[in-house]
Amino acid sequence: MRIVVAIKQVLDPRGFTVNRKAEKIFVNREEWITNPADLCALEAALALKDKLGAEVIVLSGGPARAGDALRDAWARGANRAIHLSDKAFASADGSVAARILAKTVSKLGDVDMVLCGDKAIDTGAGEVGPRLAEALGWPQVLGALDVTVVDGHVRAVRANGKEYVTLEAGLPAMVTVSAGANKQRYPHGGRIMDSYRQYQPEVWTASDLGLSEDELNPVMDNRGQSYPPERQRGTILGSPEELVRLLKRNRVV
Amino acid sequence: MSFADMYGSLGQEPHDIWMVAEVTGGKPTSLTLEMIGGARTMADGLGCYVHAVVLGNGLGELPDLVAAGADRVHVADDPALAEFAVEPYLKVLGDLFTAQPPEIVLFGATPLGDELAPRLAQRLSTGLLSHCASLYMDEIERVLIGTHPVYEGEYSVVVACPQARPEIATVLQDAFGPPYLDSYRMGETEPVTVDLAGVEERVKRVGPAEFTPPEVPLRKALRIVSAGRQAGDFELTKQLAGALGAHVAGAREAVDEGWITDKQVVGAMGESVRPDLYVAVGIRGDTYHVYGIRDAKFVVAIHPEADAPILKSADAGLVGDPAKIVPGLIEALQK
Asked: In this structure, are strands B155-160 and B143-150 parallel, antiparallel, or unpaired?
């Protein structure tokens, strides 16, 4: 059984502050971490590896720093790590990312399952998972909390309001895993050192994947940032109902 | 001029705003009506029509869709569409949008929209403006501009899809204002021919499941309800935490009262937390405590004394006895 996990590096939110008045992001400590939901997806894949002896292949795009995320994934127990690295990938949006990943998955061949996080914290879109399912023509399960394989079918537990339901899909399938679904293992110390001393993630470029320039043209356009209004501290409200309305308006509950 | 004549002159150019309506209990959801209202405003600016698509089985009359601003309601009524299922829904929408290419397609940022919108975008090779907290039409450029919150609402990114059509967006609640329901508005209802030959849902619901989410440490908790000396009845604080699905914590005084353990103390001498919501019940809010919640995104304070420092640093405060306020808050939350 072959499982592919797609991960993404994101800027650590603890390392920057957003100044709403100046409408600027101040990065105090630029640190890149693996997206939390993707780590949960990796953990789910590694649990399947422990149970079924699956082969786990980790993919990531991004500049040279993505190598750290891949080495970390390898240290945690992945069998292979592939860095999808090309200048033409830099401008990728959701549709292009899905295309690149779909090409990689079909080039790898015999892939039974693709796992990734349900949302990246830096875009919050949650679109690559379902887009990849569409590009591959596979069924999709979004926001899984627990993933198991039973007689050639994937079974995933998903939250449904306050309850949980089990969904089942035939393989191959695309499953996205929610952040907080599981507790990740620590990589072995020696393996972390090995991941830098001995191990080198494979590098695949656009020409390796046979992607043309047209296929890598993004359709989305980033038009900058907008900032929420400054926090109004010290507001005294009249009643609990008013408070609940305010919380809902701020999307806190 | 009739609808058909209008279409004849427009040919196959992508045109009009389409939205996918969601119906629960025989009524369109409030988000659906908001989206139609927002689409109506955009369509009036552009000079085009608003179409609503409803999928389901045994759908009755839905006059609200027209009242909120839809010119045409397309009803796909089929037993296979009774329950939401990705493949059949996608097939129906894909066929519809291939036959009449839309300029804009709006989905609600609901489980349905999250499953369908990205797949449809990939199928039609176009972009997706996902989870838009605000959405407006740049009429000069004729491009839809959406902003969506990132890093759990720290800031938003502004995105657009200028080249490809349709522009697909998923919309959060309150992105548009409440719609104006005009029951005199005219609109047409039209059945959609549903052809689901060879399409079968591939994800099956097996049944309910047991799952215990892993323990989250206090410093990573997303919601925290915290008690201080003036909290009164600690049981009420716990009930509030239960209603919010939050962790229970407290200021140092709460340990003296025997309510919490040492590890649940928030402040300079305890844990520094960064939840989305922090509710301080009866905490006066000295510097030591406030330091621990400096990164909290939204702080609510409930305190009997109007001059308590916590009320000045909180985003929202309620002055009064927590024993009276907390039950009312629990009730308001459950409504």
From this structure: antiparallel
